[in-house]
Amino acid sequence: MVINTNMSAQSSARLLMESSALLNKSLMRLSSGSKIVSPEDDVAGQAVALRFDAQISRINAAKGNIANAISFSQTQDGFLKKVAKALDRMSELAILAQDVTKTDDDRALYDLEFQTLVDYIKDVATKDYNGVSLFDGATLSVTIDSDGNTFNMSGVDLAASAYSAVLSGTDVTTTTNAAAALTTVKAAIVQLSTDRATIGANIARLMYTSDQLGVLKDNLTSANSRIKDVDVAEESTQFARYNILVQAGTAMLAQANAVPQMVLRLLS
After folding, report:
1. For the chain, which residues make up each domain, given as ranges?
2. Are strands 150-153 and 140-143 parallel, antiparallel or unpaired?
3. Phi and psi of 39, rounded to 5°?
4. Which residue spans within 8-139 are E strands per DSSP?
5. Distance between CA atoms of 19 and 242, rounded to whole angstroms?
6. Under a CB-based contact definition with an 8 Å cutoff, are residues 93 and 107 in contact?
7. pLDDT for res 267
8. Are 36 and 224 contacting, i.e. CB atoms less than 8 angstroms apart?
9. Could you read off the pLDDT of 5-60 as tens digits, one per residue?
10. Strand runs (DSSP E) across the chain, as ranges?
11. Cα 183 to the chain's mean position, in Å?
């Protein structure tokens, strides 16, 4: 038996320190909900999780861009629905103006409405969405994924030849002019149907892409969770184990510190 060196106490103190460190680590995991509370817990996992976090943030940004592009296209289509009604009415007026039982005074009244609708379409052509022209025909590049790839969204041009023919000088003041106006309005209606189909295709493409990004985000989030998030049931079991070890280690350290006192019995 020795007095100066108590190996039992030293070993007990070392083991207690290790158990206390594990208990503290378990407490931090349970309180934070994170499996990785310091870099050494999972070096590779932390690196992968950081990349996943960044990619998920970029996906959210891309989904926002796509949602705005869809809103832009839906706004375009909303205006074109009204333009379609205007063109329908203009074609009807062009037919009415060709009625041989009508006088030129009657046709002047038809033309008054016709020109009002022309002005309406001209006004729609100047509309914009947050400062971006809706109908200048420009192709817009929409960012559609986390890598910055883009989709070229075809534009609609209300200054295209089919529309400009209607908007520049057509009238229904005579039967001859009404017949010519009907031809140009019908051509504009055909162009409008093509433009609305283009917008519909743009919206469908963007919605498919948005859904795809949603699925990708879910999968990445799930993978990221497996790396970062603590399994509370498993960690609770470990916490109970470490807690028992700390309590037992504390009791045994007290016993180990008491052993040298037995030397006094030999000296008495």
Report:
1. 7-33+230-267, 44-139+149-228
2. antiparallel
3. -55, -35
4. 128-129, 132-133
5. 6
6. no
7. 67
8. no
9. 677 878 888 888 888 888 888 888 888 888 888 878 778 888 898 999 999 999 99
10. 128-129, 132-133, 140-143, 150-153
11. 45
Question: Is 44-139+149-228 a CATH 3.90.550.10 domain?
Answer: no
Residue pLDDT, tens place only, 62-114 = 999 999 999 999 999 999 999 999 999 999 999 999 999 999 999 999 999 99
Nearest to residue 58, comparing CAs of 133, 145, 123?
Answer: 145
- Whose tokens are 């470990």? That residue is 238
Residues 125, 167: Cα–Cα separation, whole Å:
11
Helix, strand, coil percent content, the chain, rounded in steps of 5: 75, 5, 20
pTM of the predicted model as reported, rounded to 2 decimal places = 0.81
For the purposes of burial, counting CB atoms within 10 Å of the CB of 7, is it exposed (0-12), middle (13-18) or buried (19 or more)?
A: exposed
SS3 103: coil
The partner residues of 153 in beta bridges, in order of sequence, read: 140
Residues linked to residue 140 through DSSP beta bridges, in sequence order: 153
